[in-house]
Amino acid sequence: MPARLLSFIFLWTTLQLRAQQITYTFYIRDVQGPLAGATVRIFDQQQTAPISGGITDTDGRIALKVPADRAQAAEIRMLGYRTEWLTLNTQTTTYRITLREETYSLPNVVITASKAQQRIEETTVSLTVIRPNLVENKNPTDIQQTMNQVPGVNVNDGQANIRSGSGWSYGAGTRVLLLLDNLPLISPDANQVQWTIVPFESLDQMEIIKGASSALYGSSALNGVINVRTRSDYHKRTWVNLFAGGHPIAPRPELHWWTGLQSLGGLQMSLQNKIDDSTDPNRWFGYLISALGQWDEGYQWRSPDNRGRLFFKTHFNRSRHLHYGLNGNISYRRSASPLIWNGEDQALIALDSSITTNAGFTYHIDPWLTFHQFRSTGVLRHEINARLLAIDNQSRDDSTVFDNASQSYLLQYQTQWLSHSGWKITTGLFGLWAVSNSELFVGRHTSRNLAAYIQTDYRLRRFNLSAGTRYEEFLLDNRSQARPVFRFGANYQAASYTHLYASWGQGFRFPSMAEAFTRTNVGTVNIFPNPHLNPEFGNTYELGLKQLLSAGQHLKMQLEFALYRMDFDDMIEFTFSRWDTTGGFAQIQRQLGFKSVNIGPVRIQGFELTATGLYSHSHHQIQFLAGYAYSDPHVRFPDQPFILNDITGQPLKYSDLSTDDSTGTLKYRYRHLLKTDLQYTHTRLGYRAGISIRFNDYMRNLDRVFYQVIPGVQSVHQRLNRGDLLIDLRIGYRWPSGAMANLIIDNLLNREVMIRPAFLGPPMRILLQYQVTLE
Fold it and tell me: Which alpha helices (DSSP H) does 650-747 contain, by range?
């Protein structure tokens, strides 16, 4: 009897404990104050899956109710801070935790890789982050100059190129997708990156994915993604930047056509603020306004570049759940540019003095809305984004009119499920409608792009896994094409600060209106349409290592090594041949020219090593970004015909059209890219100095026709056969008030660089810069 009674008492007590619930309350903060958005999860003894979890509110507080007998430990996580673990007991129900910033890692939090926040070392793809200080210190006149400092990336006359995935195609059809605040910013007609309207005076950071990203971002992300994120903190800040200078001298005396200084200068400003509701901490309004005014006389003869831009961004925080706003940008540009030089010794003067002038407005309007549903197991986020992008450009030379106007209308609905158990599920619907009316494209054309996508990310102990797919349908006039693409990636934390990753992604690109319909001539260069182009399709494979290094509190550094391979089918290139017979052989000059054609399968493979970091000791601080990339870009079958000439019926082979006919190297690519940027600051005295070094090897392969018909191309190309070494230098001083003055010298050695056939890059440029920041 006593034994039975004891068993009953034990069983009854156990059941009571299991039925008993206990509420644990957590207050999370850092050295600045309460932390909103920190994730708290409670685990049982096995710590395999959380039994409860949630996100702290604006006061850094969260209360979680759990079974008393199961709750054993709590995990507190937040991006940019060390993860903390607590052992729970029923005697203490309130915990006050101060999170510490990571001491081993750079503060790089990204969203582009998965459309949700994650640490850069946990991503499953190769990704580089550029912070605003690099832009502000170098004072570029547009963002593509900053992109040329990124390891593994170069921009060739407006054409973005990541790891040799692109060459030069007269500005038509980008393989790298530019995003501004997560939405595409490419022209509706030519699919051309709109570098000049990016508001880099409002930059928060740039994130560059190196590899196919079509499963998340669709067409034009075949070779990668550049996401420009503008500031969204909205704390009170005013920033003003004045600059003036110019080009004093050409690389060779024969090229120096001007007297004095070809001047440039301008004003940039950015103003932001946040207005709180004194009755409700969840209600506030934030705004950001930035502007640019710039003149540039140019180093090319009769080729000025004058610009103005106004950007604004608003954020209405109506409650903890609902956020909405309206962003916008309007830009005016009046410029002129040559296509082809007048010979080796007049390389900064246009052939036959033929200059193409451009003047016009570009603007976009972006309404958006976000709604959060907070649940015990996670957060469900709904997001609606729209963008109206319009371009109205008047363009002409002495004999031809290239006026064009185009508009695109974008609408995207996206949901994200952010589970406390480690799941992130992103789904979305995407639509883009575009119309263009241009003499260049022989009339009016329309396009439609519809897509649905899903991506799942899961964190399981040391693994971060990612998988996604996107189905895309594209209609150009009456021609329709559709296909799915897939991606998969894995990141494994092999040690405390060591991450291994592998990824595979498919990419594709539909031909642009410009590639399909352009019929024009620029000087003596004719361009022919090809409405029967096939879309490009490819696979990207990557293996990599991300290593975080630390030397006490002094050195924080991230090393990344990646092996990559890209296989593309039906790659599109402008190809020179005889494409017309109108007028017979007597009109042969009008029958020869370039046309976009599919050249067949290509393979690009190589490796890249990147290092970013910060060294700080006493009052000395050094920031650095460095990288080396080696690529082997080649056509798989250079000696096999890839097309029959439209007119003569003669087969065209890649080797027959190339200046390098022995290796099958893709045209307008570099094999070796070396980039370094160092910035030294004495934090007490305010002195600063920086240096940027860029090296690329010899561009081995061009279109052979440039050797044959344009004077000077062959001799300059062969004379500059040791590659290009460019060094930029800057020195400055920062006052305690926050004002800063810099002297910036770009192309310090005044090197002559042919960035594409018959076109030289900028010579030495000297700038004086004065900045004021008030916070």
Answer: 704-709, 713-719
Residue for token pair 């051309």: 192
Tokens 């059941």 map to which residue? 15
Q: How far apart are CA 160 and CA 148, in angstroms?
A: 9
Q: Do the Cβ atoms of 112 and 184 come closer than 8 Å?
A: no
Q: Are 97 and 29 in contact (CB under 8 A)?
A: yes
Residue with tokens 């990016």: 198
Smallest Cα–Cα separation from 537: which of 201, 748, 291, 223?
223
> Largest Cα–Cα distance in the chain?
120
Helix (H, G, I), strand (E, B) or coil at 645: coil
CA 151, CA 656: separation in Å to the nearest integer? 33
Q: pLDDT per residue over 433-464, tens digit each? A: 999 988 778 788 999 999 999 999 988 888 99
C-alpha–C-alpha distance, residues 238 and 751, integer Å: 37
How far, rounded to the nearest angstrom, does the alpha carbon of residue 61 sit from its chain's CA centroid? 36
CB 50 within 8 A of CB 42: yes
**Burial of residue 83 (number of CB atoms within 10 Å: 0-12, 13-18, 19+):** exposed
Find all residues with CB under 8 Å of 484, minimum gap 6, and list them. 469, 470, 471, 472
Cα 754 to its chain centre, rounded Å, is: 25
Q: Which residues have C-beta within 8 Å of that of residue 219, sequence separation ≥ 6?
A: 449, 472, 474, 508, 509, 510, 535
Give dist(CA 472, CA 483) in Å, integer: 6
**For 104-157, what is each residue's pLDDT tens digit?**
445 455 565 666 667 777 888 888 888 888 888 888 888 888 899 999 999 888
Tokens of 238: 């005013």
pLDDT at residue 596 tops 60? yes
385: tokens are: 């984004």
13 CA to centre of own chain:
61
User: Is 301 strand, coil or helix?
Assistant: coil
User: If residue 516 lies in a helix (H) or strand (E), which one and from where to where?
Assistant: helix 513-517
Between the CA of residue 14 and those of 71, 477, 588, what are the distances in Å? 15, 72, 96
The dihedral over CA atoms of 167, 173, 176, 178, expressed in degrees to the nearest 10, equals 140
Query: Residue 242 pairs with which residues in a beta bridge?
Result: 267, 770
pTM: 0.86
Q: Cβ atoms within 10 A of the Cβ of 11, count?
A: 10
Q: CB-based burial of residue 757 (10 Å sphere; 0-12 exposed, 13-18 middle, 19+ buried)?
A: buried
pLDDT at 747 over 90: yes
Helix extents (H) in 675-761: 704-709, 713-719
- Reading the block at residue 15, the tokens are 């059941």
d(CA 296, CA 305): 5
Cα dihedral 17, 23, 26, 27 sign: negative
CA distances from 521 to 339, 399, 528, 533, 760 (A): 11, 9, 9, 20, 21
- Is the distance from CB of 514 to CB of 187 less than 8 angstroms? no
Secondary structure of residue 465 in the 3-state scheme: strand
